[in-house]
Amino acid sequence: MWKVLLVEDETFVRESVKEIIQWEDMGFTLTGEASNGEEALEMIRKQQPDLVLCDIVMPKMDGLELLKETRRAGIASKFVMLTCMGDFESMRKAMEFGASNYILKLSMSVKDLRETLAKISAELSSSTSKPAAMSAAEETAERITHPEVKKIILYIDEHYDEEITLASLSRHVMMGENYVSALFKKKTGETLIHYLHRIRIEKAIELLLTSDLPVNQIGQNVGFMNDNYFIKIFKRITGTTPSQYRNAK
């Protein structure tokens, strides 16, 4: 069964979505629900659901920000956004940030939801059958069409363990630093430094789970020369320290 987290601030909509179909018949099980983005982010970090069915407009943290924070944490949960008619800009941004699909709340039907879940189930089955999961860098590069931004993403993926600065990336694509910084944020939804940290933490997680290397060595291997800074960034992104993460897994 694929795990689903339902995130919606309107109780009536949450209950309607829960009751509209037989989830188990589609291969899904509802493992939790949240009424705002902040609450949902904590649940995503702990549960790592396969699918997040998420409203876009919510208090405390909206659906778009929740999607971005989930990706920054290196969590690859599928996102399907619940939205209102006419909110085309939010729909466009959600798809740009990596959402798999969206459903209009007011006209949602059993058919809409079943078709969407069937699509997500196929995607999940396909991804788990691959020898290795696609890295965050590959996923981002796949959905970004701007050539210079794609070039930066692939460069970071290959050189994350080296010293990388805005100046070195700007030289790599032969553009000004301010322009590169603004362009990357516009096309990916996150700053260069946040993206670099996210990739390094993703690589650190792989080493934590597949090796016996000490935490300080893992930090150095992924590009953090300062142990305390590595632990600080790791905790900011995952909610736990590297040692706690390794022990929990």
From TrEMBL:
Domain Response regulatory: 3-120
Localisation per UniProt entry: Cytoplasm
Modified residues (4-aspartylphosphate): 55
Pfam family, one: HTH_18
Transmembrane regions listed in the UniProt entry: none
Coiled coil: none
Record domain HTH araC/xylS-type: where: 150-248
Keywords: Cytoplasm, DNA-binding, Phosphoprotein, Transcription, Transcription regulation, Two-component regulatory system
Matching Gene3D superfamilies: 3.40.50.2300, Homeodomain-like
PANTHER family the record matches: HISTIDINE KINASE-RELATED (PTHR42713), TRANSCRIPTIONAL REGULATORY PROTEIN HPTR (PTHR42713:SF3)
The name this protein goes by in its record: Response regulator
Gene source species: Paenibacillus oenotherae
Lineage of the organism: Bacteria, Bacillati, Bacillota, Bacilli, Bacillales
